[in-house]
């Protein structure tokens, strides 16, 4: 037994973020009693158990050292590299004439009309087809890779880390960013360009800095990708600017833009039908969405009842208290990271908040594990010495 329970209790009692996570989890538990679909409610609750366990474990295990956390972070980056490499290799081995999986028939027609000379190679190396190498949603895969690139960027020119040389880190960042552009997630591309613009503004006067070269290379990669890759071009702006992509055909939405518009609209109306304090309950969001879509006589080609927006999801599921507690889970560490000039954690919480606008990011293991992992690292870092300053640990 590790002991030192008084110290552990002091860490727990004085850390507001742990308490926020605990209250948020308790609200999920209370949602069980308001749910008709108890099986689904329990399933949703079980998925989020790491929200309770991981922060408590990392913050109160006193024998845990920075070197242990460093190994965990390195493992995360290595895992992202293996996943990225696997996706590229799988995409390169698609056989000619294989059925494309990026678009349905309506979207494919629009894509082909605007990109008549597109090749099957770009179809294989982009978007859903590329992410299918590890059977992962392209937006989540791109987001994982983006944060792996941020970790490598944090270690650039840090001679004390002794992990990777600056040149190796630079090349890996370029590889990761190239893959982000191929995955063609509009949100993650925007976040990547935002990060690059920030880097350029900070290091513009340091011409010899690898960090400057990272900031300069990313917009160049984006420009090259847009000019060469028709899938990225279509996803980045052609679909967004096409008015037809926001319309339903015979009551069914097909384009990704129209799908989200419709799902957000359905979720908003469904919220108006339930108690704003208690919501539908932890397990009844899908049924509430399905009933509202039926009332509006709309269908979605991907057959989903997910609002694709975490804030709408939580308001519908847990009511205003659940939504407000989730906003606190995002904003409290965001504010603390800003005050500590801890830009990598600031970017993590800011970008995850943005991810929650287009995805129900905290309703799948892909989002839950990532958020609780790095939130727990944030708690671990500041459990004793809030003056530590920038850096992952």
List the helices and strands and how they pair.
Elements: H1 5-13, H2 16-32, H3 38-47, H4 50-60, H5 66-92, H6 105-114, H7 120-124, H8 127-131, H9 138-154, H10 166-183, H11 186-203, H12 210-228, H13 230-241, E1 252-253, H14 256-271, H15 285-296, E2 299-300, H16 310-339, H17 343-358, H18 365-381
Parallel strand pairs: 1-2
Helix pairs in contact: 2-3, 2-4, 2-16, 4-18, 5-9, 9-10, 9-11, 10-12, 11-12, 11-17, 12-13, 14-15, 14-16, 16-17, 17-18
- Residue fraction in strands: under 5%
Q: Give helix and strand order, one letter per element, not per position.
A: HHHHHHHHHHHHHEHHEHHH
Number of strands: 2
Q: Ends: how far apart?
A: 26 Å
Low-confidence stretches: 385-390
Q: Find the structural class using helix and strand composition.
A: mainly alpha
- Tally the helices: what do you get? 18
| Overall 3D form | globular
List keywords for this structure.
393 residues, mainly alpha, two-stranded parallel ribbon, 18 helices, 2 strands, 68% helix, globular
Short description:
The chain is 68% helix and 1% strand.
Task: Give your account of this protein's structure.
With 393 residues, the protein is mainly α. Helices cover 68% and strands 1% of the residues. The model is unreliable at 385-390 (pLDDT under 50). Helix 9 runs parallel beside helix 11 (186-203) and helix 12 (210-228) crosses helix 13 (230-241). A two-stranded parallel ribbon has the order 1-2. The chain has a domain at 65-241. It is globular and about 70 Å long. It has helices spanning 5-13, 16-32, 38-47, 50-60, 66-92, 105-114, 120-124, 127-131, 138-154, 166-183, 186-203, 210-228, 230-241, 256-271, 285-296, 310-339, 343-358, 365-381, and strands at residues 252-253, 299-300.
């Amino acid at each position: 037994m590790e002991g030192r329970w008084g110290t552990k209790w002091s860490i727990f009692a004085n850390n507001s973020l742990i308490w926020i996570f605990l209250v948020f989890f308790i609200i999920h538990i209370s949602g069980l009693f308001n749910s008709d679909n108890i099986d689904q409610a329990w399933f949703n609750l079980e998925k989020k158990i790491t929200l309770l366990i991981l922060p408590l474990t990392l913050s109160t295990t006193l024998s845990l050292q920075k070197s242990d956390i460093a190994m965990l972070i390195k493992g995360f980056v290595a895992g992202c590299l293996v996943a990225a490499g696997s996706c590229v290799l799988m995409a390169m081995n698609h056989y000619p004439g294989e059925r494309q999986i990026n678009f349905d028939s309506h979207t494919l027609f629009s894509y082909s009309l605007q990109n008549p000379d597109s090749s099957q190679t770009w179809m294989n190396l982009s978007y859903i087809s590329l992410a299918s190498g590890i059977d992962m949603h392209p937006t989540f895969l791109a987001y994982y890779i983006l944060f792996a690139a941020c970790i490598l960027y944090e270690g650039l020119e840090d001679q004390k880390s002794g992990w990777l040389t600056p040149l190796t880190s630079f090349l890996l960042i370029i590889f990761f960013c190239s893959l982000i552009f191929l995955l063609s997630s509009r949100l993650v591309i925007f976040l990547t360009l935002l990060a690059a613009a920030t880097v350029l503004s900070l290091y513009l006067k340091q011409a010899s800095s690898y960090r400057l070269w990272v900031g300069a290379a990313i917009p160049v990669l984006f420009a090259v990708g847009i000019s060469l890759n028709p899938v990225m071009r279509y996803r980045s702006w052609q679909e967004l600017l096409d008015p037809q992509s926001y319309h339903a055909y015979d009551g069914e939405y097909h384009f990704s833009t129209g799908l989200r518009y419709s799902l957000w609209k359905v979720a908003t109306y469904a919220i108006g039908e339930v108690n704003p304090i208690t919501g539908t309950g932890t397990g009844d969001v899908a049924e509430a969405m399905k009933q509202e879509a039926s009332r509006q006589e709309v269908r979605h080609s991907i057959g989903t009842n997910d609002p694709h927006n975490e804030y709408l999801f939580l308001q519908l599921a847990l009511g205003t208290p659940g939504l407000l507690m989730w906003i606190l889970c995002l904003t409290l560490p965001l504010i603390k990271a800003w005050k500590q000039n801890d830009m990598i954690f600031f970017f993590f919480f800011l970008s995850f908040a943005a991810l929650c606008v287009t995805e129900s990011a905290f309703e799948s293991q892909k989002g839950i594990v990532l958020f609780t992992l790095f939130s727990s690292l944030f708690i671990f870092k500041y459990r004793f010495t809030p003056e530590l300053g920038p850096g992952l640990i």
